[in-house]
Amino acid sequence: MEFALTRRNEVMLYVALGVVAAVLRFYQLGSAPLSASESVTALSALRLARGGTEAAAQLPLSPLLHSLQALTFWIGGTATEALARFWPALAGSGVVFWPLLLRDQIGRGAALLAVFIMALSSALWAVSRTGDGLTLALLCGLLVAAGWQWFVLRSDRRGLPLAAMALCAGLASGPPFVGLLFFGGGGGGVGLGAWPRPLEVVLAGV
Fold this sequence. Notes:
Layout: H1 7-26, H2 36-49, H3 63-76, H4 81-84, H5 86-95, H6 103-106, H7 108-120, H8 122-128, H9 134-153, H10 159-173, H11 175-192, H12 196-204
Helix pairs in contact: 1-5, 1-7, 2-3, 5-8, 5-9, 9-10, 9-11
């Protein structure tokens, strides 16, 4: 597979997997009623979209999701279960491409297979169709890792703004992102042997 897989076919397969992942996550997204935890954020976002200034009884766990929901409700002029879950589903569709970060290490075929598995994963499917900040945190973690890898492995400073913006967004996505930083960030950086290299890149450009 490694030799038969051309670059063009590889891109087409990734696009097809992305479409499949999105269809699975958005199909009948609003068919199930919001849970109690989902309702807290959605109702608070709806009040904000309608110009309400009263404080919510319970603060949302994900300020990022809360802001995105309020913007969506304001643009759409209404609030539905599907709109409340729109951003988690969109983020969940992007999270399936996480294995691309390891494409050079594990090979093109293995990365493609991993994306295929994640696109069809029932666990990721369920998380992506829940109106909380978990998939947003995962996507922000993916973008942080991508920017960091771009900066470290390719010696390209443009990766730093991407990683910094994703880090800020991730911190606003909720508590899961903090856990992702502790358990994933340190291990990923050490595994890539990346910690000494950024200093060299920065000093080289001074």
